[in-house]
Specification:
Length: about 170
């Protein structure tokens, strides 16, 4: 489904996390009246191991993320916004960049990484790991949003995630 002449085409980086839900809600609130076509790009990063356990983990992550992005697309459709899904495997930065180069959206929307990880039974451990990964990312590559802000050829809207979003919390 191609956007109609004059219809805005928004690409939303979506990984079914708390932050992605905040970005989804923001797209609905900010652009809903315009009824843009929204392409949700969801990138599943390979765990990088050749073991059977790693393959199983990847398959599980892929299924969960696929179901999440398809549910988000259904929400947008229900709100009257045409939506489509792109599932990609690999480095999120490179795959989102490639998608913007191929699809040429009018706007890329993504959530800024926050220090508030998704809640769950391993919340404490998740927070510690999240902090370590965040530090490593900034030392080596920078964040996904910073990488894309320097490279995409379309405007980019980075949604802050420090504020609580009621719809995002309800989805957890």
């Amino acid at each position: 489904m191609q956007p109609q002449e004059g219809q805005m085409d928004v690409m939303l980086a979506y990984d079914h996390s708390r932050n992605a839900r905040i970005a989804l809600d923001s797209v609905r609130e900010m652009f809903g009246p315009l009824k843009p076509t929204v392409t949700l790009i969801s990138v599943i990063e390979d765990v990088g191991s050749a073991t059977g356990e790693a393959d199983e983990l990847f398959s599980e992550q892929y299924a969960v993320q696929k179901a999440g992005v398809e549910a988000a697309a259904a929400e947008l459709l229900a709100a009257g916004m045409p939506a489509k899904v792109i599932l990609a495997e690999g480095d999120a930065r490179k795959m989102i960049l490639r998608a913007t180069e191929e699809k040429k959206p009018d706007l890329l929307v993504m959530a800024r990484h926050s220090h508030q990880p998704d809640s769950g039974p391993l919340g404490f451990l998740t927070k510690r790991l999240d902090a370590l990964v965040e530090e490593f990312d900034h030392m080596t590559f920078g964040s996904v949003s910073a990488f894309l802000a320097r490279r995409v050829k379309c405007p980019i809207l980075i949604i802050p995630t420090h504020a609580h979003a009621p719809a995002a919390q309800a989805a957890e």
